[in-house]
Amino acid sequence: MSQPNRPKLSRQMGLMALTATGVCSMLGASINVVPFMIQRNVPGIGPYVLSAFAFAAIPAIFAALAYAILSSAMPRAGGSYIYVSRGLNPYLGFVASFSQWFGLSIVIGVIAYICIPFLRDLSSALGWEDLSTTLEIPLIRVSLALFLIWFFVWINIRGAKSYESILLPMMFLMFALGAIVIVAGFTFNSQDFMTALKAKENRIFQPTSVAFDWRIFLSASALLFSSFIGFDSISQAGSEAKNPTKSLPKAILLAVFSVGVFYFLFTAAVYHTIPWSFVAAEAAQKDISAPGLLSYVLPTEWGVAILMGASIALINDLPAMLLSVSRLMFAWAEDGIFPSFIARIHPQKQTPYIALVVAGLMASLGVLGAHFAGDFFLGIDIMVTSMMVNFLLICIALITLPKINPLLAGQISVLKNRRLQLWIGWLGTLFLIGFIIMHTSKDLTGEVTHWFIHSTLIWLIVMDLASCLFFIKWSKFRQNGPEGHERFKVLPEE
After folding, report:
1. What is the span of the domain harbouring residue 32?
2. Do the domain assignments include residue 443?
3. Which CATH number does the domain housing residue 348 bear?
């Protein structure tokens, strides 16, 4: 619980910083890798990637609307935990947020790890072959990934100004360089690609076709759902937002719709020039990305620019995601679920520095996991499962809040029409249940070719352990009588 006369989080983040937090959490590997590597991970999706992406947007939009509504009533650090613990059930609040925390912690490490090959390719494109070769050394790759994580831990600890000074310029540069992909993709066409392929590699590629399959389409949609994960990071900064009842909902919706449009145009542009069957053939043999695919038709300087954009997009994921997972731990510590020292706030910087250090340690484990697993899609699969569960419980909390906590329900300041809220909550719930079934069934029935087990089973094991932790703490709350439960009925102190 909050203690008197202690340092507090400071409301310094404006609308732009909050939106950037969501945008930078959403863009990264999702935009440059997932829409193309999906041809390997979901064989047979073929030309239906864009349709699957559009379908994947439906539950994400409902979840984003639910987040926006709840954020206006409960603007506190650790948003998702607060929304579900106060609007549904304390244990389910912990499940929603721990699931989110676990998935994002793993992916932070994965993203840091896959940043290095992009930097390697950028070095090669610039003619820095010695540096490119050095970046292929496993120890160097792991060390640099760890450096990136701890650099952004330090940036976050320094406070909102340092955070914004890094995030905002990188976000604008990322959009500008990503726009080159969109322009180039729609400037060239598949015939240009065929000509370039013949000239560069003396290859003749014959495009193929594939029949539409609903099961494959739904499996791909469930995986492409990962493209929309990240806007939730905005809500975690609820205690640091200026004018939070208005800025949090606005930032969430701005992030979702701007990234959604950008992502769709980006993917459509690449597939406009590169035949899907070539993408599928290449993905079956090696890891591929948007810059690598477009390198066939682009001048060298354009190729360097989009490689730089891809690298920035990946790196930009890190500070925003570290902010997100640290605020979840902060909120648990505030409620007494985690040790209270994790909620300590730096007396000068007004940041939860202990929580950030723990977030850095978890992300470091993610780096090592990515290195030894040898398949970054394992981390993405875990994140998708984790976030689907999180979004599902958020939608349910929107439905139950007026009954469970009418006082907080009365604080909602956006989309206040109850009938509309129920439509958003129920449709989001139904879509997300369907997506969870699709994703987990594909995972559990798929063949595991590496040493690790299915991502769903990993998630279940971790959540079982986390549940044990919660109920140990819950038993202590019960010993304190009704007062021990009061913290779960009101918002934490500012």
Report:
1. 17-438
2. no
3. 1.20.1740.10
DSSP string, 356-422: HHHHHHHHHHHHHHHHHH--THHHHHHHHHHHHHHHHHHHHHHHHHHHH-HHHHTT--SS--HHHHH
What angle separates helix 377-404 from helix 455-479, to the nearest 10 degrees?
A: 40
Closest by CA position to 255, among listed 225, 238, 235, 269: 235
Q: Is the pTM of this model over 0.70?
A: yes
131 occurs within a structural domain: yes
pLDDT per residue over 59-116, tens digit each?
999 999 999 999 999 999 888 899 999 999 999 999 988 888 888 888 888 888 888 8
As a three-state string, the secondary structure of 92-117 is: HHHHHHHHHHHHHHHHHHHHHHHHHH
Give the model confidence (pLDDT) of 240-277 as tens digits. 889 989 999 999 999 999 999 999 999 999 999 999 99
Query: CA nearest 245: which of 74, 407, 395, 80?
Result: 74
Show Cβ contacts of residue 304 under 8 Å, excluding neighbours closer than 6 positions: 122, 125, 126
What is the count of structural domains for the chain?
Answer: 1
Q: Is residue 492 part of a domain?
A: no
Q: Is residue 5 part of a domain?
A: no
